[in-house]
């Protein structure tokens, strides 16, 4: 069907919806991948809110099918990039217990979620099966930041220095002696009050400024010695160390932005976080391409707002914050090699989401066969623009992590997936009960 054949939103939904269930999803996933084509190296799937169990289960089922039938070798989730190395080490067979690494290997408490544990156990089982040729990789692609917490750059710098120490112990020790006094205590970097009170951040202190300069020196050291370092290690090891040093530099710039009082400070910090996410995703895609040249495709999972193609917006009290998210950034880097599925929801009493009002996009999509359904926005672009623009936007309830579909959703996502409902995530923190 061509876009011009869909004269209305209801016709688009009726003629293009691919219904499925979690228990019977393979055929729907295969149809989606056939429509996307072989050029996709990074496929993003969003979650419409943090806390929806069915969307975590859908992520797991989607990734399993992508591995089994479509050449995917890695998953990247909205969790700390440096911490995720511990999880990846576990899935390739090191260590005996996920409990020993889950809290340190995930950020945001995501290691406690039952669905994440099942994902990791499945990946490890596949990797330790001699019959499975292409070993899977696990990544976090978030910068170690969030609204109330920002990590010290210590872990990222240590990774680069450990690499350098193997090849040049004296030079690595010289850098470590520069870094340690300026790094100080991690608690000073991680002060949760700093995000909303710039003077409480150490990001512009003399020590932080000196550390930024020393990190630039380390990057220069690694870059100018690339041929020598690669020859004595490997391209993969060198690029991992170089990327960690680059990420540390970005983290130090982020801390400086936190310490700077300005009207656009929060939006700038949100944009910097997403830019770091995009840089991590670009690195992950390139690493998988080198690791598995015949396949090496990656699934990314995060909130819709991080993976979308258009500008992200967040109403924080009286402020409307707007920034370019990771999806829009990575689209510029990968072009047609990136596609994204935006997720929507009918209702969820457990998560504080009301039933969508008649006429809203969520209500119309949930009226189609389900309980889940895929639908391509490409096939909806023949709908008269005035009908799309006139779409009412649903109300939400008390859960402010759900951002409703709007007219912009047709351009923000390549595909949509909508669930009738979702329960609260198993293993997560206590469910909020206040409005």
Q: Could you give a quick summary of the protein structure above?
A:
By secondary structure, the protein is of the alpha/beta class. Helix content is 46%, strand content 15%.
Enumerate the strands of the largest sheet in spatial order, edge to edge or round the barrel. Answer: 1-11-12-10-2-7-3-4
Q: Tell me the quaternary state.
A: single chain
| H/E topology pattern | HEHEHEHHHEEEHHHHHHHEHEEHEHEHHE
Portion of residues in helices? Answer: 40-55%
Strand content: 15-25%
Number of helices: 18
List the helices and strands and how they pair.
Layout (H helix, E strand, L loop, with lengths): L8 H8 L1 E3 L5 H11 L5 E6 L5 H18 L1 E9 L3 H8 L10 H4 L8 H14 L9 E6 L2 E2 L2 E2 L3 H14 L1 H15 L2 H4 L16 H19 L1 H6 L3 H24 L6 H27 L5 E7 H4 L4 E5 L2 E5 L2 H9 L3 E10 L13 H6 L5 E5 L8 H5 L19 H4 L2 E7 L14
């Amino acid at each position: 069907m061509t876009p011009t054949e869909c004269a209305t939103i209801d016709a688009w939904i009726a003629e293009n919806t691919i219904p499925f269930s979690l228990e019977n999803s393979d055929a729907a996933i295969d149809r989606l991948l056939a429509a996307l084509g072989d050029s996709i190296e990074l496929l993003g799937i969003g979650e419409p809110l943090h806390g929806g169990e069915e969307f975590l289960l859908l992520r797991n089922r989607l990734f399993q099918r992508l591995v089994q039938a479509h050449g995917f070798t890695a998953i990247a989730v909205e969790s700390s990039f440096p911490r995720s190395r511990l999880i990846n080490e576990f899935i390739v067979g090191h260590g005996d217990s996920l409990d020993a690494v889950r809290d340190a290997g995930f950020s945001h408490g995501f290691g406690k979620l039952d669905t994440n544990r099942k994902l990791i156990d499945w990946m490890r089982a596949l990797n330790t099966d001699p019959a499975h040729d292409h070993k899977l990789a696990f990544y976090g692609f978030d910068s170690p930041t969030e609204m109330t917490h920002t990590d010290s750059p210590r872990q990222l710098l240590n990774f680069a220095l450990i690499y350098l120490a193997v090849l040049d112990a004296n030079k690595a020790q010289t850098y470590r002696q520069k870094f340690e006094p300026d790094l100080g205590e991690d608690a000073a970097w991680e002060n949760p009050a700093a995000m909303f009170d710039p003077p409480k951040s150490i990001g512009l202190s003399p020590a932080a400024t000196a550390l930024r300069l020393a990190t630039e020196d380390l990057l220069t050291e690694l870059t100018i010695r690339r041929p020598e370092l690669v020859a004595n290690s490997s391209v993969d090891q060198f690029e991992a160390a170089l990327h960690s040093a680059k990420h540390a530099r970005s983290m130090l710039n982020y801390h400086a932005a936190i310490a700077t009082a300005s009207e656009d400070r929060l939006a700038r910090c949100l944009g910097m976080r997403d830019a770091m996410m995009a840089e991590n995703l670009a690195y992950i895609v390139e690493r998988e391409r080198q690791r598995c040249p015949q396949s090496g495709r990656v699934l990314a999972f995060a909130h819709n707002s991080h993976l979308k193609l258009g500008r992200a917006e967040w109403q924080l009290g009286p402020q409307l914050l707007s920034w370019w998210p990771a999806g829009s950034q990575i689209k510029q880097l990968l072009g047609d090699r990136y596609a994204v599925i935006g997720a929507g929801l009918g209702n969820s009493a457990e998560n504080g989401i009301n039933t969508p009002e008649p006429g809203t996009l969520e209500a119309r999509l949930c009226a189609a066969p389900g309980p889940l359904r895929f639908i391509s926005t490409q096939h909806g672009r023949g709908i008269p623009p005035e009908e799309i623009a006139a779409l009412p936007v649903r109300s939400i309830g008390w859960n402010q992590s759900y951002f409703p579909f709007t007219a912009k959703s047709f351009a923000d996502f390549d595909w949509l997936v909508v669930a009738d409902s979702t329960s609260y995530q198993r293993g997560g923190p206590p469910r909020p009960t206040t409005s």
